[in-house]
């Protein structure tokens, strides 16, 4: 039952559809006043493909129970070619019995995918604002009010709720620190990432929305007219993947704004894998390729292709209409986006770099590798057979040695550990809080490395060197006492910017 949904169906089926949820917002959010007469109305659009009955209904019921009906124009369910029998007439009967004509069900005539199905739903919407939700969510108290108020104040602002985690195994709703949340970023490999809010971006008022460079894409609210005036979604994208970054870049570059509001919280079941088929296609890759060609300046496209050389020869399809849209909207450059919205914080592999690319030990032909692990967590660096640059997995082996001495990935640095391994951790600087001088020194030094071309990679704090001695393919790289004659400690980066790297 877990495999068919990528979450615990047994527990989902036994949890009440209208279960109580905590209030995860900052306390100050309860003091906000809203003029319901001026907020307008919302159409909530939910796309599903063979979703679990209980999860889909819990999503609908939570919206119904926790949204003032004066503000809820309708809930639009778009069935994207589901095959489950209970999602046919049974769903119609259930919705008709409990929600009347407030819930509308649209069915596609073939598998369209999330992107085109959302466009279909938005076209049928009659509310002032369209709110897109995934089909395994639960909204919380007053969730819709700050979304509508933000758009009422500025229709060109797209607003996302804070996304809370519903555990995929227990379905427990986790709240965390009400005064801390992350905003959206992106990786040069074309994926969404969560990033901490830089201190310079923080608001003194915990009820104010914070600008976000990108959105996760599953849950957001947008003025319906604005959605279509800026080009909706790219309807030439297939199934799923990349559409969130495309929309995020387009919003910022074409005069819009994207924020996350701390007073709106929606829970979401985060799954470890997709339980549905992509029809044998790398839809995320090709969709992202379209995004890169349209919205990134050529000087920045190279960073994507450093990771995805396999896509250089792929056809992104006809981009004419999207490029015409970009021209029509008089959109700004990607450099402007990085300088102004990312505020110069985006790491670029070949800037301030001594060496970059794959890091190979010639004795074993093993390369440093993140082993397909989640880089949002602290992970142990391993070694794996060196991949060809034309292979998608090659991006797992891409590292940079910076001029400041950091051996790093895009958003995290390699740290030497006490047990002679190397872990990927948040890059440290002198702004570390709640640590004494000795701890700060150790933290900083453990992330600094020395290297000579075709030689050691030595950690500054431990004075030990990266080694593959006794390490098999797929295992963790180790640290060992440096030895000039040990070929297991010799490393070559794919590209050096200075032949005399130190």
Automatic annotation (TrEMBL):
Cited SMART domains: RICIN (SM00458)
Endpoints of the signal sequence: none
InterPro entries per record: GalNAc-T (IPR045885), Glyco_trans_2-like (IPR001173), Nucleotide-diphossugar_trans (IPR029044), Ricin_B-like_lectins (IPR035992), Ricin_B_lectin (IPR000772)
GO terms for cellular component: Golgi membrane
Primary location group: Golgi
Family matches, as Gene3D superfamilies: 2.80.10.50, Spore Coat Polysaccharide Biosynthesis Protein SpsA, Chain A
SUPFAM superfamilies with a match to the protein in the record: Nucleotide-diphospho-sugar transferases, Ricin B-like lectins
Cofactor: Mn(2+)
GO BP terms: protein O-linked glycosylation
Main enzyme class: transferase
Pathway(s): Protein modification; protein glycosylation
Record-stated family: Belongs to the glycosyltransferase 2 family. GalNAc-T subfamily.
Keyword annotations from UniProtKB, A to Z: Disulfide bond, Glycoprotein, Glycosyltransferase, Golgi apparatus, Lectin, Manganese, Membrane, Signal-anchor, Transferase, Transmembrane, Transmembrane helix
EC number, as in UniProt: 2.4.1.-
Manganese keyword on record: yes
Pfam family, one: Ricin_B_lectin
Gene Ontology MF: a single term: polypeptide N-acetylgalactosaminyltransferase activity
Localization annotation: Golgi apparatus membrane
Stated name of the protein: Polypeptide N-acetylgalactosaminyltransferase
Membrane topology per record: Single-pass type II membrane protein
Lineage per the UniProt record: Eukaryota, Metazoa, Ecdysozoa, Arthropoda, Chelicerata
Ricin B lectin domain mapped to chain residues: 353-494
